[in-house]
Amino acid sequence: MSFPRAAIVVIDGVGIGDAPDAADFGDQGANTLGHTAEAVGGLSLPNLARLGLGNVAPIAGVPAVATPEASWGRMREASAGKDTTTGHWELAGVVTDVPLPTFPDGFPEEVLRAFEQAAGCPALGNEVASGTEIIARLGEEHLRTGRPIVYTSADSVFQIAAHEERIPPQRLYELCREARAFLTGPHAVGRVIARPFAGEAGAFARTSRRRDFSLPPPAPTVLDRAHAAGLEVVSVGKIDDIFAHRGITRSRHVLPLAECMDATAEALRHMDRGMVFTNLVEFDSEYGHRNDPSGMARALEDLDSRIPALADAAGEETILILTADHGNDPTHPGTDHTREEVPLLVSTGGRLPGVSLGTRGTFADVAATLAENFGLDSPPAGHSFLRDLPVGPERGTLGA
User: Which end is more exposed in the chain, N or C (fewer Cβ atoms within 10 Å of the end residue's Cβ)?
Assistant: First the structure.
């Protein structure tokens, strides 16, 4: 059994309940999907329910079904962290043993000095802050002085915010590249993020021209292996940035949910053999980090409405995987990611009902499955679930 195409859709930040080691991260009791559903009196996700989402865990409004159309399970992160970068790396087969550095007291003097030399002026901020809050507080001073706003979060990030009329996006990207060059060793954050914004004092808003400048994965990923084997690898959303543009043949750098889903479906319709890797960032950036369960619920219901079109584009020749990279419980104290298990839904578009895939010990099981499907070298971590998937007689069995 093999499929000529694969699609991995990462619903960023949408965990399914606290991981066994959640207490080590201060995240005991976190449950992004469960608590979001409770906060709004239940979710309406009929298409995801048919796939088996309600079979993964109890979710108000999303019942378990007797014969899910997809195979279902959950996965635990093996990497030492709960951030976007390492979560995606692990999905692609690279497990990291050391967490990426964070800066809860702001960046040290030597880092700030190097940045200010690159910028040609002092920076504003240098603190842990919400992106929307810090531009509301410092945006007017930034407009007046031209000094870029530097901030971080509980994640391993160095973020630079600038008004598009004061520091144009291309110049902001240049500053990010220069910062990426000196943020090495103990200061090697996972991502340097450009945060352009627009508007006037009292009404500043971030624009869609965000860019992430990531560390490259420390080892080959399944994307690298697929690319080297001549397969098409299409990234949608911020996947290209997360993997430092490595192992990718074509990129659709779109961010809104609707555009990402449309781009994923379009890529599948025009692909002969290869994979599409998609990140849906809004769940994390717009709702999890902003403690907005109502917004999270609306986005989930919007996603659900787009599942039939995606499934139609996937057809019976695609292994379609829906999952997440970490949790971001909008009801949990603080605005940080939460250490959670993530849902796993795997559709093969056939007429046979799905099967339980259980609780997987690492996100890297996704990479191992893709590697087996495409005949690539197996990643050092992960166990394939390809042979566990239901197969119709027209497709045959592995080894036949």
Answer: C
